[in-house]
Amino acid sequence: MSRRPVIWTAWVWTLLAAGGCVREIPLPLPSHEEELVVWSILEPDSLPTVFVNLSQPLGADSIRRYAAGATVILESRPGGTDTLVFEPGLEAYIGRMPARPDAEYRLKVKYDSYTATAVTRFPPVPQARLIAVESAMIPVEEYYGDAVKVVLEIRDPPGENYYMLQAWHIRDQSGRSAAYPMHIASSPAQDPVIRNEGFRFMSTSVSFSDLAFDGTDYRLTVYYHGWPEDGDTVRINLYAQDQYAYLWEKFKVYRREAGESVLGAVEPMLFPDNIEGGIGVFGARRDTVLTGIFHD
Amino acid sequence: MKIRPLVWNILWLALTLSYGQKITVTGIVYDAETKEKLEGAQIYAPDAGKGTVTNTFGFFSLQLPPADSVRLGISHIGYRSRLITVKAQPVIRLDVALEPGETLNEVVITADTEERPEKDVRTGKISLRPAEIARMPSIFSEPDLIKALQKMPGVEEGTEGTAGLYVRGGSLDQNFILIDDVPVYYLFHLGGFVSIFNPEAVKRITLYKGGFPVRYGERLSSVVDIRTRDGHKNEYHGAYRIGLLSWKFSLEGPVVKDRTSFMFSVRRFPYDIFLKTVAAISTGGEERYGYTFYDLNLKIHHRLGRRDNLYFTFYTGDDAVSMVFKYGIDKTLYRLGWGNRIMAVKWARPVGAKWFVNTTLSRSGYRYGRHMKDDWKTERYLSDFRYKSGITETRLQSHWEYRISPQTVLETGGGAVIYDFLPGRMTMYYREDGTVVLDTTVENFRYRSRLLYGYGALRIRPLPFAEMEGGIRLNTFFFSNHHAVTIEPRLNLKFSTGRSGAVKFSYTHISQPLHLLSSGRLGMPVDLWMPATDLVPPAVSRQIAAGYYRSWDNGRYDLSWEVYYKTMKGLIAYKPGMSFYHFAFSKWEQAVARDGTGYGGGSEILLRKRKGKWQGFIAYTYSRSFRRFEELNRGRPFPFDYDRPHRIDISAVWQWKPGRTLSLAWTYGSGYPVSFPSGLVYVREGNGGYQILLYTEKNNLRLRPYHRLDLSMQFTKPKRRGERTWIIGVYNAYNRKNPFFYTLTWQDGGYRLYQISLFPVLPSVAYVRRF
Description:
A: 9-stranded mixed beta sheet, B: mainly beta, 22-stranded antiparallel barrel, globular
């Protein structure tokens, strides 16, 4: 065999490697249609907080942080009408009447030529009990580490239900009690329900649906990173939430990694939307607090 | 039911036509030199005015009226025709050897009668031979079966340069890819840029886009039937090929002359040796990196007596990535590998004068594996992580063909499949200071499911100008404690319009008991096959198609024009934000959007010139394809990822003198849709906030249109033994900057949009030596 083919091959590969293939071509941005963006998640006995903003074109060179001057009205039955007041420090509209868990809420936002409305109501209080809070050694990604193992049992009513879970390590310091959020371990050993909801590294909360355990008593095991000492208190906040509060939480988890750079390679999550005349989320959630003593 | 009398009448007519035949001529037609069975050979009895064609195994059966002797003409494109006269008997057994014709030249694109589109009863069927594929220009002058199919109407390639296959709005997992009747589960090497099929080993490739034969099921959108070569029965022949992407070698010949033959071919990406060496030299031996892929095909054919044939098919192919770091006595290694393995034994024989049976026992599997190990002896630390996933199927199938008369053929058969799914198994081992800290296996789930299927179809010609094939396929899919039954009626109708024209209709109902969990738009090695379950039942598709088919000048030109409409249900997709890396296998249904539907339709035109110095085709497709999931795009329908309304392909091959060919291929397609943010919004969170991209609709923006021109020249010269060919090619000859993907980049205080283009003008060269 002649050596020519080998020489040809090596030469062309070298040429390609030296030249490179990837090219970046600037394109004009598509035109933008401004939208009224509204989001608010109600919690019982807390003052309603509503964020109002307008979308901006992708090429905008300054950030529009909020839309002041909107009229934001919250009607509740039973309850009444609450006109929310803009609080510049919070960049949000704040209500004057704490949310009532037995009421249905109707939100109305007017800003310039936009009018947006939405409705929500609170889900029932979640039923659960804490089974164990203890230390564990778990594989974390491709390594291993210490973790806090939390086991709780959720009594799930029939129908679609959505939850959110947070854990806090309570420590008494100098006579004062301080609560530190615990981070969910990115472990392959996590409960399948937790894994399948796509929690992310160092998440402090995870939202999940009851799809995998609808209408049953489900024992959930979650591993957290945390450094409690023997005898410390661990507090669990288990929230029941409506579908849009659930989607909003998931959206916040995914927003950083889905579709922010490569369009078409990773499917982005759409901005959740149950707002008529605008875009955004009006949801509600309420929690059950469970506490346990950590045993090393 | 009113249709019942009609069906009985048709059956009666078919049986009447078959009654009273006195002479049955049956046998095998094969290549006189290689002894390879010839599919599509014509057998014609001029005195009786009747004829038939051979099946995949070269078998034919022809019924003739009483006579003292029988004259038969046997022909096949590329072979010298023969006229044989034999003394009449009730059953005449006749095995016919055809000598390759003087006029045969590799550049001749074969177009036997069966391949003329108006002759076949089906819609949506396209056959290609390796000689055709070898002449098509291709990236890095690397001929690729799947990329050749991508140029056919109704087929989309997906991401540029890849060997994706999206047929009539179907997904990647909806193609039933068969090597000698054995399914293949993963199609790609080199990140999708090369398909696993080595053209050197292939005899014929047939694509069905609709009107599927009843013996095929299990995937919604297409069947790709690849037949490998049996090997030369009398002489040893071989070839090697040196190209930019791979080096190949093939050898074929007799094991026992006239009785047993083999065909062996191997292909390898050779540069890992170079890469490893360069890395080792530049790092003083501390680091080694490598990537390679290979394929190995082996086929053995053995004749057991006159009528029985045994075939053994073996394929293995892998991609392998490795990185090894050695620092003194400490070592870290990272290995990644994936590939297919196929093994099959087929027994084929005629039974009596009219039956032909082939039975196959096969095993096919795909596996993916990852291994990471840190062995740091200086710190007395050892960690070992292994991950495996895959699918394996064991299949027994038998296909029976009964040629009642040239016009009446009954096909029946069935099979049983056992699927073993391994979505993932992770083992972890850690040792510190001689103490085992962790030794565990997680996510060790295995699923087993079973499929039983049976089918029957009858092809008849109730009227001289009408041909019909009706059939039904019954599948029962068993998984855990559940089972799903699907009944799939199929119908193909053909009405001849003169000697060389036809109008056809088809209805196809098909189901798919497996789902592919696919991350992103490329077919990735980590994609997981999962069984249908009670929560995620088998997907189902229905398709109707109609078309007009015509050929002119004895098959020199042919035209196909088809329209179709297709619906799908039971589709799945990852929920947004979800991917292989984030979900648990035991409750995987939670991670996917379920009960998705798909719908779409289109019109496809293919005009071909298949003989002469100039050959080629023009293909145009207008099609739309949509998906709808409750959990995606707020429940609204959206364009499928590879929805491309317009697509044009023009391909031409010119042989200006013997051994010299010039070929060109131009392709144009509308841009694919992608999800694009409609704007920006600032979100306040806690004590801070952030600006986010506001995505409000899925697949709402189309990339720029795609087009490119590829050229290829081949110079073939006879040598003392065999021949050599130089292939010089240019991919993307006018250097079109086609979109590979778009990216948004934060720059100068705002987002800027960029198109990333991957392949500029790319010259290539390859050398082929046949002996």
